Amino acid sequence: MNKEILKKTQSLIALLILCLMISLLSDKFLTTNNLWNVLRQISVNVCISMGMTLVVLMAGIDLSVGSILAFSSAICAGLISHGIAIPAFDIYIGFTVLGGIMAAITVGTGLGLFNGWVITKFDLPPFVATLAMLTIARGGVMLYTQGIPISNLGSGFEFIGSGWILGIPVPVWISVIMVLAMVFITKKTVFGRYIYAIGGNEKASFLSGISIHKVKIAVYGIAGMMAAVAGILVTSRLNSAQPNAGLSYELDAIAAVVIGGTSLSGGVGTVSGTVIGAVIIGVLNNGLVLLNVSPFWQQVVKGLVILLAVIIDKRSKR
Amino acid sequence: MLEAINISKSFPGVKVLDKVNFLFYPGKVNAILGENGAGKSTLLKVLTGVYCDFEGQIRLHGENMQFKHIKDAQHAGIAIIHQELNLIPSLSITENLFLGRELHHSLGVLRTSEMESVARSLLRRVQLEKDPSTLVKNLKVGEQQLIEIAKALLANAGVILMDEPTSALSDSEIDNLHRIIQELKTEGKTIVYISHKMEELFRIADYYTVLRDGITVEAGEMKAVSEAHLIRKMVGREVVIRPKGQKCKESSTILKVANLHLQHPLVKAKNVLHDISFELKRGEILGFFGLMGAGRTELMECLFGMVPDRMSGMLAIDGKPCQFNSPKDAISQGLAFATEDRKMEGLVLGMDISSNISLTTLKVTELLNTDQERQFAQDYIRQLAIKTPSEDQFCNNLSGGNQQKVVLAKWLATKPQILILDEPTRGIDINAKSEIYELIQRLANSGKSIILVSSEIPEILALSDRILVMAEGRITAEFSAGEAREDDLLKYAI
After folding, report:
1. A187 and B CB contact within 8 Å
2. Cα angle: A47, vertex A51, A55; to 5 degrees
3. Is residue A318 within 8 angstroms of chain B, CB to CB?
4. Domain assignment of residue B240, yes or no
5. Exposure check for chain B: N or C terminus, fewer CB within 10 A?
């Protein structure tokens, strides 16, 4: 029984030990300012890794989320700053902040659904299909922005990334809402149960009468949507859409999922685990900066931590 | 001489071997008899070093063996020929023979011609007239079996274990195999032979040991015993046969299949199933008998909407023609399909019992009601006597028999009219087996129609009201309950 509890909380314990170590080494870590800062930084990865958790639970993978983030970010910023103009017909459509956000989410979800459609329709490995989307969407960003950042988005939009509500940064609110939504999906809905079932045994799920294609397409759609939400956070925080936004964010998201104990072979894992995984990565990043570790070493350390986490997880499952 | 002394081996929740003792004589064919689930394959895995965490001793020529790994057993000269062959189809005969023990020069450059010539002489020994460069995928099953034997000869194995080597072979292939076994005997090799075919065992085996529920029941010389005696020892009791075929003769047809064809998955011009037509009546248990590869499972997959693109023909339920594009469609029309492979296709092993049972009945747009699911699961645990501490138990912790009951529960939950059971008792213990037999009969009595697919003749004979025999993708014979005899079934299955 004790062993069970230990297993369930081991990533939490690892996080606490990490916090303790950093706070002993740096007096700047445990300041309110820094902690809010960490949480705000983490919120982007939390959003992406929420979608990634569902995908990985289903024994899939989504490499395209970083690019989808950038694409949604560009769409969001582009529409808010200069709308859609078709000079040939003398048409101009302006977008409010909300309109831009809705458009970005629609586009992100659409790209995700397309991922799911390609994977199920042509029976492609998710790795390959989303790898293709990674370059397609990034190329789309470059085409749309011509490689130039889109700025001047107005002060109203900035609130999402930099504002506070009830003493808590808005991005933290948003990521908490996303986390709760995913917890609800995975724990309380039949759809969530199907995700676990497909990840655990796709063939048996199919034979049980589950429309596995529809579930898969929906899950990749959610992953795209979460990437779009993260894209809006990033855009608002910088008050600008960067063409190279979200570069290699998919790796951080996968790392969070894996550190959180979700099996890459599917069927096993939790949303809460992923949250802890994302926080571990965020705290680690922050701590290494506070300790003046060179950025090159930071990457090495991060990689080692991921390795360690997975090894521990694997051993504890024996 | 190979000896297994007081071998015990348990898995979580079930003791598969309980202090079993075996003596295998050199220069003889030693048969292991036992029903599915008796522990035969576990024993083989212990003898070949797959499982090393067992109690007891293995002695070869009086010497204690400690197999930590499959390689250790191979070095000691023990080779196994599995029921499912372990060859790589895309490689040639030579490459397969030498896999893992390639002959090479000092820099790792392969000595190809030398290997070819060794392969050639091995092929002569097993009387297979093929060029060693032939790809294994172009060989027939029987020929592939001979490659496995050649592999054992190449490894200079003194002990060769054969796990149901003839289950997929034709008559002439079986004769050929038996001839080779006779030769191996004269060379002093110890042959351990597992087969379900009694007639075959009486033909080639010298000694036998009967395994039942993980215990060695009896051992002796084949000459000294009768078939009936061995069957009694294997089963442990007389099989009860219910009165059959009476009431369902008059009842109405629920499923009608006409002119069903199924295309080969890769070769478009080839058919896997040819012109299958049959009817299933309400409350009937319809047995499908055939050897491995006869097309029985493929037929069931057609009925269950798993291969809509490749099949043609007519299906009608209650007289209404219908078409299933997915298992979902089939389920909605009252079909249920408990597949042959419960681990790969039946259960989500990493989920608990109640989630597995409810999987077939949940609607994707709904919220979960875990209390109701548990209640549901508890009902079935009671009804089917599933042995488990609770409905929260993960399915990978259950024994084969209990896993099978969970599979049945999940299909009963859909309230099916037609229940397709593909090898429902494969690899499960005797008790669970007889419970499942009773359940099947109870279901039929209550008006459900059962399609029973099995390769175990006693099972088919004991349960079916009517028996269809399949071979090479066709229905080759039909028997009603009383008139079917074991050798008739076999004759039409080959």
Report:
1. yes
2. 155
3. no
4. no
5. N
Residues B212, B262 within the same domain:
no
The answer to whether residues B310 and B439 belong to one domain is yes
Question: What percentage of chain B reaches a pLDDT higher than 90?
Answer: 27
Say yes or no: B91 and B204 in one domain. Answer: yes
Does residue B212 share a domain with residue B85?
yes
Interchain proximity A215–B364, CB inside 8 Å = yes
Task: Give the torsion through C-alpha atoms of B69, B70, B76, B80, to 10 deg.
Answer: 160
Distance from CA of A250 to the nearest CA of B (A): 27
From residue A249, how far is each of A41, A169, A246, A290, B465 by CA, in Å?
12, 21, 5, 22, 63
The answer to whether the CB of B222 falls within 8 A of the CB of B230 is: no
* Backbone φ, ψ for residue A91 (5° rounding): -105, 135
Within 8 A of B347 by CB-CB distance, chain A residues are 201, 204
Domain interval for residue B254: 247-493
CATH code (residue B370): 3.40.50.300
Under 8 Å CB-to-CB from B465, ≥6 apart: which residues? B244, B245, B248, B284, B285, B286, B444, B480, B481
> 3-state DSSP: chain A helix, strand, coil percent, rounded to 5?
75, 5, 20
Provide the 3-class DSSP secondary structure of residue A130.
helix
DSSP string, B338-395: E-S-IIIII--TTSBHHHHHHTTT--TTSBP-HHHHHHHHHHHHHHTT---S-TTSBG
Q: Rounded to 5 degrees, what are φ and ψ at B33?
A: -110, 145
Cβ-count burial A19-43 (b if 16+ within 10 Å, e if not) = beebeeebeebeeeeeeeebbbbbb
Asked whether residue B125 is assigned to any structural domain, the reply reads yes
Q: Is the pLDDT of residue B390 over 90?
A: no
Indicate the DSSP class of residue B248. G
pLDDT tens track for A77-86: 988 888 887 8
C-alpha dihedral sign at A120, A122, A123, A127? negative
Q: Which contiguous run of DSSP H or E holds residue B278?
A: strand B271-281
Say yes or no: A197 contacts chain B, CB-CB below 8 A: yes
Instruction: List all residues of chain B from 458 to 487 with a beta carbon under 8 Å from chain A.
Output: none
Q: Do A190 and B368 touch (CB under 8 A)?
A: yes
Rg for chain B (alpha carbons), in Å? 24
Residues B298 and B219 in one domain: no
CB contact under 8 Å between B368 and A188, yes or no, is yes
Q: For residue range B411-468, list pLDDT tens digits in order.
A: 999 999 999 999 998 877 767 888 888 899 989 988 899 999 988 888 888 889 999 9
Domain boundary among B235, B263, B281: B235
Task: Check residue A235 and give its pLDDT.
Answer: 93
- If we measure between CA atoms, which residue out of B310, B412, B313, B306 comes closest to residue B356? B412
Comparing CB atoms, the residue among B326, B364, B414 nearest residue A190 is B364
A102-141 exposure pattern, b = at least 16 Cβ within 10 A, e = fewer: ebbbebbbbbbbbbbbbbbeeeeebeebbbebbebbbebb
Is B435 inside any structural domain?
A: yes
Give how many domains chain B has, as a whole number: 2
User: Chain B partners of A208 at a C-beta cutoff of 8 Å?
Assistant: 327, 331, 359-360, 410
Which residues from chain B sit within 8 angstroms of residue A187, using beta carbons?
A: 368
The label of the residue with tokens 């130039």 reads A148
Answer whether B456's CB lies under 8 Å from B424's CB.
no
Nearest CA in chain A to B334: A209
Q: Does one domain contain both B338 and B278?
A: yes
- Does residue B241 sit within a domain? no
Domain boundary at B211, B235, B259, which? B235
